[in-house]
From TrEMBL:
Keyword annotations: ATP-binding, Cell membrane, Membrane, Nucleotide-binding, Phosphonate transport, Translocase, Transport
MF-aspect GO terms: ATP binding
UniProt cross-references to CDD domains, sorted A to Z: ABC_PhnC_transporter (cd03256)
Protein's name according to its UniProt entry: Phosphonate ABC transporter ATP-binding protein
SUPFAM superfamilies: P-loop containing nucleoside triphosphate hydrolases
UniProt-listed Pfam families: ABC_tran
Species, as recorded: Paenibacillus agricola
The keyword Nucleotide-binding is annotated on this UniProt entry: yes
């Protein structure tokens, strides 16, 4: 079976001339939990954002489900963003609206624009969103405003929103960078467990090597916009780590 995601010779040069990616190649099979590590500025966020076209790559291809995301039309990008959920470091919730509404925003890609703008979610979508929130232990927070929640709870809402899209792939860009170690573990446990249970493929950017080793089925190390390591967590030696993180 073809890989779910295949990245070939991916390059990104920003308008100001900064080269963020200089020819990245890798494949991700269905069901993998891939963790991307690398020092600050290595190109991890750019890589994730090229996958769902939040950033337009300069060269190369991103095959997702046999479609080249780099050449996707407007409607194909909409489909792509529906099938690829994203979890952000800063949660990216709408603070003044309820937890439930934030989760339902994961359904917007499936609705026509008018229904979406009016917030006319179906009964089925509302029930599903509530089930997801139960699963993430947020059943008591359903009707609270998002900004009334702790950081860890907000990130669980971020996960719930991504899940409500029924994605094939989740991209998580440093989902625990602004959380304490105990809360971080809760978030990683939820993300890992749900992806395994639901067969969702996941690519997570992380700073913490120990956390990467604990959860990843595979680790990709990015150094100055290139792949410096691609292998199993137990193959990640101290020497390799040093190379990945050298300036
Ligand atoms: N919009 C942009 N315009 C210009 N340069 C950018 C832009 N976004 C990122 N960069 C640059 O591209 C390079 C890669 O950045 P990127 O954010 O992808 O790295 P990162 O590995 O995710 O870093 P961090 O771990 O600090 O988030 C850096 O040199 C960064 O300054």
């Amino acid at each position: 079976m073809a890989a779910l995601l295949e990245i070939r010779n991916l390059k990104k040069v920003y308008n100001d001339g900064t080269t963020a990616l200089q020819g990245v190649d890798f494949k991700v099979d269905r069901g993998e939990f891939v963790v991307v590590i690398g020092s600050s500025g290595a190109g991890k966020s750019t890589l994730l954002r090229c996958i769902n076209r939040l950033v337009q790559p300069s060269e190369g291809s991103v095959m997702f489900n046999n479609m080249d995301a780099t050449k996707a039309s407007h409607s194909q990008v909409r489909k792509l963003r529906r099938e690829v959920g994203m979890i952000f470091q800063g949660f990216n919730l709408i603070e003044r609206v309820s937890v439930l509404t934030n989760v339902l925003h994961g359904r917007l890609g499936y609705m026509n624009q008018l229904m979406g703008t009016l917030g006319m979610f179906s009964k089925h979508d509302i029930e599903e969103a509530k089930k997801i929130l139960h699963r993430l232990g947020l059943h008591q927070q359903i009707y609270k405003r998002a900004d009334e929640l702790s950081g860890g709870q907000q990130q669980r809402v971020g996960i719930a929103r991504a899940l409500s899209q029924q994605p094939q792939l989740i991209l998580a860009d440093e989902p625990i960078a602004s959380l304490d170690p105990v809360t971080s573990e809760t978030i990683m446990n939820h993300l890992h467990t749900i992806c395994q249970e639901d067969g969702i493929t996941c690519v997570v950017n992380l700073h913490q090597v120990e956390v990467a080793k604990k959860y990843a089925t595979r680790i990709i190390g990015i150094h100055k916009g290139t792949v410096a390591f691609d292998g199993k967590p137990d193959e990640l030696s101290d020497e390799v780590i040093q190379h990945i993180y050298q300036k």
